[in-house]
Amino acid sequence: MDASILVIEDDAAARELLAGNLRHAGYTVSCASDLGEARARTKETRPDLVLLDRMVAGGHALSYARQLRGDQRTSGIAIIVIGADAPQAHDTVAALESGADDCVCKSVSVSEVLARIRAVMRRSAPQCGDQALEISGLRFDPAARRVTALGRDIELCAIEYRLLHFFMTHPDRILGRSQLLDQVWGDHVCVEERAVDIHVRRLRRALEPSGHAALIETIRGMGYRFRREEVTEVAQRRLLRPVPMPHAAYLGVGDRRRAQRRSTQ
């Protein structure tokens, strides 16, 4: 096991305890006590996974998670946020919406942290076969681990990558949230169904510029459906809307035409 992990924790004792257990499990570990040091670390070497203490000193941890997701170089890094011992639902939602792949409580056992790391790392290297898929100009190439929309690269994190693959291999079917959790996250992972909605929203956001976001349809009370629809039809709805001319312009054109008819009589 040679995956690299960056531990961002401002409490020295907690940081060293976690780092020691990770090294014992076979991971290559680097540490940072604040976000400034973390940025320097990721600039030097890109880790495979970041363990991010939500309360870390030196800045806002969730803003840092968004920065990682927004940078093409670091967008594929897996992120686990370590939160409060008794997190509120909105805290977990905020972490997931900021780009985290998973959240754990600070008081959980080391064995659970290691299990969650293994689960996230499996999702970060999804096995989707080698056959490329293409629907309406949206191309999924697992061999190159590349997604393109109308020829342009689309950057996705590991979860959105697996989610899109499952959608594209099951088109025109209604897929429930529990089914998506089992197939994309895995039945061994304890994640709320709300996480599905968050990642679908992020996937739609990535596909919006090309018009492919409209292919993911929400089925109220049931889940989602990925439609086999020509992207030209999507584009027509988004881009080819009639542009009304000002009323005065119509009057001006009509006046000129009537004047021309009178001049020829």
TrEMBL record:
Pfam families reported in the protein's UniProt record: Response_reg (PF00072), Trans_reg_C (PF00486)
Residue spans binding DNA: 130-228
Record-linked SUPFAM superfamilies: C-terminal effector domain of the bipartite response regulators (SSF46894), CheY-like (SSF52172)
Molecular functions per Gene Ontology: phosphorelay response regulator activity; transcription cis-regulatory region binding
Residues modified to 4-aspartylphosphate: D53
Listed GO biological process terms: regulation of DNA-templated transcription
Keyword field: DNA-binding, Phosphoprotein, Two-component regulatory system
Domain (Response regulatory): residue spans on this chain: 4-121
Domain of life of the organism encoding this protein: Bacteria
InterPro entries: CheY-like_superfamily, OmpR/PhoB-type_DNA-bd, Sig_transdc_resp-reg_C-effctor, Sig_transdc_resp-reg_receiver, WalR-like, WH-like_DNA-bd_sf
Gene3D superfamilies xrefs: 3.40.50.2300, 6.10.250.690, Winged helix-like DNA-binding domain superfamily/Winged helix DNA-binding domain
OmpR/PhoB-type domain segment(s): 130-228
Entry's Gene Ontology cellular component terms: cytosol; protein-DNA complex
Name of the featured protein: Two component transcriptional regulator, winged helix family
Organism of derivation: Leptothrix cholodnii (strain ATCC 51168 / LMG 8142 / SP-6) (Leptothrix discophora (strain SP-6))
